[in-house]
Amino acid sequence: MSLNKSEQSLHIEPRTSRQLAILLLLMHGLAMVVIANLAAPIWLTLGLAGSVVVLLISAWNIYIVGNAKRSVKVMVWDADGNWTLVMGDKQSLKEVSLMPSSFIFPKMLVLKFLSKKNIKYSTVVMPDSLNPRLFRKLVLRLRLDTSS
């Protein structure tokens, strides 16, 4: 595939994803249903339910609202294959690497990054968070990059 360097640099600034919001609510809601149907002491049931609520709030702030320090707001994948991340607190992380444990599905991308300081960051990109052309281009380039 022969592209010039200006076409190879991708500036990815995901919008809030309605699909991801529904998925988070569905997953955590189902966990609450399972917890409610456990034959366990009330203290254990309340502890588990509280944990699910805390995890939902944390995931909501990181992936939906994007106001947490660990939220990835902007990703830039330059022509040389280097990544730059802009976080929720406006901090810019240069030269982060995409981890091989990232998931690439046709309708969902789970991108995991590792900084120079060995700090892990992740973001979830759904088709409704980018324009369709950019999402397809990102999926294609990720597949080509991971296959080589």
What features would you describe in this structure?
The chain is an alpha+beta fold and 148 residues long. It has two domains: 9-14 and 72-147; 18-65. It is 43% helix and 25% strand. The protein has four helices and seven strands, in the order αβααββββββα. Strands 1, 2, 3, 4, 5, 6 and 7 form a seven-stranded antiparallel β-sheet that branches. A hairpin with a 5-residue loop joins strand 6 and strand 7. Helix 2 (18-36) packs antiparallel against helix 3 (42-65). The longest helix is centred in the middle third of the chain and has 24 residues, at 42-65. The model is unreliable at 1-6 (pLDDT under 50).
List keywords for this structure.
2 domains, single chain, alpha+beta, 7-stranded antiparallel beta sheet, 148 residues, 43% helix, disordered N terminus, elongated
Spatial separation of the terminal alpha carbons: 13 Å
- Number of strand segments: 7
The average pLDDT value, as a whole number, equals 91
Domains, number: 2
Largest sheet: 7 strands, antiparallel
Shape call = elongated
The tally of helices reads: 4
Helix content: 40-55%
Order of helices and strands: HEHHEEEEEEH
Radius of gyration, in Å, reads 18 Å
Q: Strand pairing plus helix content: what structural class?
A: alpha+beta
Instruction: Tell me the strand percentage band.
Output: 25-35%
Which residues form runs of ≥5 with pLDDT under 50?
A: 1-6
How would you summarize what this structure contains?
With 148 residues, the protein is of the alpha+beta class. Helix content is 43%, strand content 25%.
